[in-house]
Amino acid sequence: MAARQFVLGTAGHIDHGKTSLVRALSGVDTDRLPEEKRRGITIELGFARWQPSDELEVGIVDVPGHEALVRTMVAGAGGIDAVLLVIAAEDGVMPQTREHLHVCELLGLRHAVVALTKIDRLEGGDEREELLELACEDVREALAKGPFAEAPILPVSAHSGQGMAELRAALTSLARQVRTRGRKGPPVLPIDRVFTMRGHGTVITGTLLSGEIDLGKSATQDKSESAPELDLIPAGYGRRRRSLRLRGMQVHGGEARRSRAGTRTALNLGNVSVDELARGDVISQGHKVVASDRVLALVEQLGFGQRPWARDTSLQLCAGTASTAAHLVPLALEDPETGVLLDPRPRAPKPEIGPGQRGLVRIYLDTPLPIWAGQRVILRAYSAAHANVEGLTVGGGVILDPLPERRHPLRRVALARALLSEDPAERATALVVDAGMVGADAETIAVRANIAEPGKLLARLSGPRGPLLGLAGGRWVERGLLDELVRAAIAEAERYHQQQPLRAGVPRATLEAALPGHPAPELARAAIELALERGALRVADRSGSLARPGKGSLDPDALPEAMQAMLDLYTKGGVTPPTLRQISQRLDLDSKRVLEYAGLLQRNGLLVRVSDDLSYAAAAHASLLVRVREHLAAHGEIDVQALKDMSGVSRKFAVPFMEHLDHLGVTRREGDRRLPGPKREA
Q: Over pLDDT 90: what percentage of the chain?
């Protein structure tokens, strides 16, 4: 059975002994840069593996404590389950200690152990105990109003080893009891280092936040065999999402076949160079992570801020291992008592999020970042003038929608409430309803509603009694929209009949285009098919025009005068009818009007079109067709001359009529003669 994976992150002021404590716990020196060795501080993220037992494996993230490097600390804290808060007994709680605490709280961390370090430097005797007691009180006071109020405080010395056994026991107990943070779904690994290894090529490192990465076949496999592929979601402009080939893997510094969420992972990647990757990029699979330059988020300003966040407030957003300038547009405030987002009031002042308040914001990013729904982010000020009294970290929050659409404020608030739900069905339904007539596909629902595998869920929601309707083409809409569009199609057909009383019906494409709300083509087609099924519409002619029952048909006894005159000419002409041009001249009608009337008479069965310029009155056409069929039955064939002889027409009429017979299937051509076709019988 695989060991339980747990990620522990350090937090605390510079030079309070975080790296020394990690080395005492794990035996690993997490300072890897020469500058870190020289200056005695952690600049980049450091990582160590500590295995207290066969059943438990703890990955320790040693983050920098220097104030200027808090962004790096955010990158490391994004994937941890609990905090090892390191505070030097001789210094107590410092500004960076408090800022680290705020960052951990904003990232959703709720469990911690406090190591009161460097106790070997305190003076001996009674004064030592008194100093330790004062230091503990100082820590307890700093933690009193946050989620770490009940965290154990353990005096330790990494140098002498005093208290280390108790610290190991407390951390082991915490790692076994605390439920690890949500790690199901596709793999997500923010890149924090990119480098080249001789003999291996490009390597990236990061902490796997969710899912698993499996190496699959042997790394020594033949190049012709397929290697596991991962997706690169780049930060910034100028690069596109692409597939990468996985060649090898290390977990916590050792060769591995599989990496699970919560582990420190290094990936050896093929088909990509170091120059094509950067810190801040994300490795993933599927559609969970997207590159986005605008997000919908629920944010909180820390209670020590100097000014409220108004429209276009500019801050720095830190997400995973990436960061960029961000511009906030507050949309709604959260009720501090109920925790519910308040609807914006008409003509009320634009909402502002003040110190200690939470609210819904739309955030515009200067450069696209790899983002996913449910991701925790940190907001930092650019200067002390805009910061709070305890550092440049001014707030943070959670991404609700990584690809928000433009919507009315009330609709955005309603959608945000649903996206905050723990129920994936509620989130998916809300997104589909918000998409309106256009609908949403499974990929969009997966990304925006943070649902790893939406297929089964959507199948259930689009069942006979479900709120959604699945359309051909893989889109879903709110079920009630179908009936709404059926009613609209009926109304549009009625309007068309009023405006075009002589036409058989409205062309199908015209009706689909006239439906309100610009529905997805699949939805428009489904609505019209349902109207036909219910008998609310009917197919009016061979072209597929649609009409209401009892409408769209010409009354032969009440034709318009010009149309009746036109039909009389065709009837009088018999088997030698006039051409369209002749009718236009005889009746002094515009050629377009003649063509329109001919089409209406044809669609209503009063004329039969033989060629572009030749039509027969229905009775004359039927009579000649009967004679042709009789001739075929008697002689087994017919040609142009035989048709001329039996009907008394000239070649001008016989040739197009014979071609018309071929088209109908009454005859089939073989050289200069026609043999009986598949529809030779009436």
A: 53
